[in-house]
Write a structure and sequence with these properties.
Layout lengths: L6 H22 L4 H4 L8 H7 L4 E2 L2 E2 H18 L1 H26 L4 H20 L6 H24 L7 H7 L1 E2 L6 E7 L4 H16 L4 E6 L8 H15 L1 H13 L4 H8 L7 H20 L7 E6 L2 E7 L4 H12 L5
Parallel strand pairs: 4-5
Antiparallel strand pairs: 1-2, 3-5, 4-6, 6-7
Helix pairs in contact: 1-4, 1-6, 4-5, 5-6, 5-7, 10-11, 10-13
């Protein structure tokens, strides 16, 4: 009977149920506008966090990791409350790490994530107070806090070493859009102060909408006579590094939209750019890759586009062309019949 259960046990399972609901909402928020509205809809902190590269772990969404963690915690509690208390320490350390990410790295707050943090903290406090046997309570509590610290550190260390190793694959995954496995690849070289690149960016949006089978890679080719382009590149790529491809694409469009007042626009963004040697090294490596790719294609100006089919160069388009001139090239590229 429910009324015969200890209050702390009822509180524990109530918090588990609440946590599971929030995990489900976190996943549904990707697909249902009504759920996304809980977080404030487009442009909200939830959308920024969800679009970041930190929204999954080993390719699995954090919502699913949360579901698995709550199920495991409930299972441990049913067998041995002390084990559940220790595992709650691990969960607490992970939650502190994810809050750290939102505040210090992504610089956006997700409401659902913060509710999740509160639930895990309440579970931790409840188990800290009630789960351990009196004879060893002090040792268990110390172990629980120690596990929380270890969990936080285990997550934090890889973050600090994020730029170690090859950068090419990571760079393309966050400054691109579409299916990386597609046989149709379009590499676009542009400069943020190039007038024709701004016009070309509008065409790029049309290509994304009308040719979803094409994988687009956005590469930076800084024109030396454009004094603010390096700053624009640094800002846009820092957004890609911290917040992922969706926010990068949005930021890229914003920079071009503000091309006529680019210095004022970038000055307004500078306070949000933090000093981070790891990120700077990653961005510089990405720029080196872009320049090497431009040299490979003998590209010397912007805008330029390289059409690559099944790993082989299909065509290089140099300079700006209106969409009605590019479309036949794209139709031939992907094998569509001309209309």
């Amino acid at each position: 009977m429910i009324k015969d259960q200890p209050k702390e046990r009822l509180a524990f399972y109530a918090l588990i149920a609440a946590g599971l609901i929030v995990c489900v909402l976190t996943e549904l928020e990707k697909y249902l506008p009504a759920v996304a509205a809980i977080c404030g809809g487009p442009g909200s902190g939830c959308e920024t966090v969800r679009a970041s590269r930190f929204s999954s772990l080993f390719g699995v969404s954090l919502g699913y990791w949360g579901l698995a963690s709550y199920v495991m915690l409930a299972g441990l509690y049913g067998r041995n409350a002390a084990w559940a208390g220790l595992f709650a320490g691990v969960m607490a350390g992970a939650e502190f790490y994810f809050v750290y990410l939102q505040i210090s790295v992504i610089q956006a707050i997700c409401i659902l994530c913060m509710i999740q943090f509160a639930i895990v903290m309440l579970l931790g406090i409840l188990l800290f107070a009630t789960a351990f046997p009196p004879a060893r309570r002090g040792r268990y509590r110390a172990a629980m806090l120690g596990l929380a610290a270890v969990s936080f550190t285990v997550f934090l260390v890889p973050l600090k070493g994020h730029a170690a190793g090859p950068i090419m694959g990571r760079a393309e995954s966050i400054t691109s859009t579409g299916n990386m496995a597609s046989p149709y690849r379009l590499e676009i070289f542009s400069d943020y102060q190039c007038h024709y690149c701004k016009q070309n960016e509008i065409i790029e949006r049309q290509i994304m909408a009308e040719y979803p089978e094409v994988f687009l890679v956005f590469r930076d080719f800084i024109i030396q006579s454009h004094p603010y382009s390096p700053m624009a590149v640094a800002y846009a790529n820092s957004v890609a590094y911290y917040q992922g491809k969706e926010m990068y694409l949005k930021t890229r469009s914003e920079v071009f939209d503000n091309q006529e007042k680019i210095l004022d626009y970038l000055k307004g963004k500078l306070p949000s750019m933090k000093q981070d040697k790891v990120m700077e090294d990653a961005v510089n490596a990405k720029l080196s890759n872009d320049l090497a790719r431009a040299a490979e294609f003998q590209i010397t100006g912007t805008p330029s586009m390289a059409l690559i089919k099944n790993g082989e160069v299909f065509r290089i388009i140099r300079g700006y062309l209106p969409y009605d001139k590019i479309k036949p090239e794209l139709d031939e590229f992907v094998g569509r019949k001309a209309k």
